Amino acid sequence: MSWHISSKALDQDQLLVDESLFAQGNGYLGIRGNFEEGYAADMTTIRGAYLNAFHDVVPIEYGEKLFGFPDTQQKLVNNIDVQSIRIIIDGDDFSLFQGEILDFERFLYMKDGYSERRIHWKSPAGKEVSIHFYRMISFTDKELFVQWIDIEPISQVQEIEIVSTVDGDVSNFVEASDPRVASGHAKRLHVTDVQDKGPYMQVSDETEVSKLKVSATTWVSASREALKESRSSFEGKVEERRTFSGEGSLRYEKRSVYTDTYRHESSPSEAGFELAKRLSAVSLDELIRGQRAYLNRFWQTSDIRIAGDDKLQEGIRFNLYQLLQSVGKEPTSNISAKGLSGEGYEGHYFWDTEIYMYPPFLMTDPEIAKNLLLHRFSLLDAARERAKEMGHRQGALFPWRTISGGECSAFFPAGSAQYHISADIAYSFIQYYLTTGDEVFLADYGAELLVETARLWIDTGHMKDGRFRIDDVTGPDEYTCIVNNNYYTNSMAKHNLEWAVKAMALVEERHPTVYKNLAARLAVTDDELKAFREASESMYYPYSDSHRIHAQDDTFLNKQVWDIEGTPKEEFPLLLHYHPLTLYRYQVCKQADTVLSHFLLEDEADEETIRRSYDYYEQVTTHDSSLSFCVFSIMAAKLGYEKKAYEYFSETARLDLDNTHKNTKDGLHMANMGGTWLALVSGFGGMRVKETGLHFAPRLPEAWDSLSFQIQYQGRVIALDIGRDKTVYTLTEGDVINMYHHGKLFTLTEQQTLLHA
């Protein structure tokens, strides 16, 4: 139960959504859930194959370009199409849009790691066949995509012809009406070579500006001999035809490997042929067993079980599975806003990674989390350069949107001005150290990043009336831009500054030689560390005496409140219907802002202030961003608003499965998927990782019978089974540990049952 999703849809709108829902990937390669044979001639499809971080560089056009505006941006490239397979039954092309569909359903199996389409079809000529399409992107051989088709004639069939195509002449999808989707620069990949070597067909392409190279190498096999075979190449395509007798069942298999400049530097083309030869010797059964073994290990550490709600259980497993499919598992890549499931936001990496998508991996697979941090660290020099472009004398300013390190945001008020991304990245490095205790990583990478981001705040902010203030920034709420003293930004900057000092002290104490070299290389002085400490201790937090809450910024509470209730439903999201300046003049939040800070840094405010802030900001938040519901669920759980916590969580768990934001066709909402995990573990589980240790404050919604999950913390594996009035903690791996349950310290040895507070 809840280990697969399925669909019988054949209407245009749902097919586009299903292309995202049934997408498959492994963190390197992602392919949308398109039909191998295609669609009706008048139908729209977003046919896509994507390699994580594989991009071109495109110009940004401005009506008025000012100093420091980026000239170019990176854009994820729709890659060589290897999906296409035509099946011709006695002269009639198989299609779900002609002939008669006697039965059809498609499945994505999350325990097994492959998808299936089951079809019972009658051709226009009356020939009945059963066709099962399967496809799998390997988790163990990252370059490999496998398709296999089982064809069973039901009525008498004379001949089955199968045409397999590899197409290098591809373009990106564009949609001018939606700023979240690219509106131009569709053709970025150009065919450079087509080769036919024995059993292997290969198409090689190159991007127009970045000059990244990619090759797709394909080969086919069948369960019985073909009556005839032929190959041809034309217009950047290579095509193979095989004709079989229509008697008896037939299995047809197509394997493809993608190789590119990033991972196969010497020659993607040669690497493709070498991989193809090696993988030709591996049976399909072996590949399937390897896939299941990989996923078995994943689910053992990552599964979350909700007893009492099958729909939400399906949602959380789907979200976790898609996160796994999209996260880069090597330092050459990250995880983008849409993962590898679509072209929304052009494949850019945002702060979504560190605040929403990183935590599930940190607590279940720290090695993946470390690679995400290593990728960010690899872009530190680019962040230093960006800080200089923005007029800073020192520090590192990470770009709002990026793939290879350059800023991709052309709209600076809601993009580049979100300086908090540097503090968000610093926060993730701090959380990694607290969760793993990895001092070597802190010494080799973390301390340097924390110092450089702390320098940014010193250069950005200033002291006034004894308080450190940060002017003209944008917080997480993109409906309120270019403000002074955004509470979220200031609180995260304070945390960043504090930990720059702490990290350097830790490295000096435990790795003195590393410290000496690092301090010399970065020219860190005692006076500078003192300045970090003073800025942190003097950080200004805007506060409203009348509301007794932390103000989102210096002026937010002075504005007129937007009439959310009186705004027609069809005018949401507001960003698609109102000029930004209109939104900036009102108290209206796109997403959690101050409330998010109260989650990440809850000790910066007392609980009653947090409660009043939650109550206030809930009334002015539209949740037009998919990043918002989970935060409000987490904080509602903390504050004992059980019904609200459950309702907000319900919005997160099935956001894509139910297409509630109406744009799932452009790719899945990866940050929301990470937020689902956060809502369960940090919300209903009440988990916080602090300097004092590991804290839990479990609260079970009335609708559920139990909630179970496990986390990894400092070399230990700890399982929780949360019931109505008690939680069972089990130390399944590692040494005895002191932890907190609803604020009370206890020692976990093997298994312990604690009553809820």
TrEMBL record:
Gene Ontology MF term list: carbohydrate binding; glycosyltransferase activity; hydrolase activity, hydrolyzing O-glycosyl compounds
Keywords of this entry: Glycosyltransferase, Hydrolase, Transferase
Active site: E478 (proton donor)
Every Glycoside hydrolase family 65 C-terminal domain range: 687-748
Binding-site residues, substrate: W351, D352, K590, Q591
GO biological process: carbohydrate metabolic process
Domain of life from the UniProt record: Bacteria
Domain Glycoside hydrolase family 65 N-terminal: from-to ranges: 8-238
Domain Glycoside hydrolase family 65 central catalytic residues, every copy: 317-677
Entry's family note: Belongs to the glycosyl hydrolase 65 family.
Name of the protein described by the UniProt record: Glycoside hydrolase family 65 central catalytic
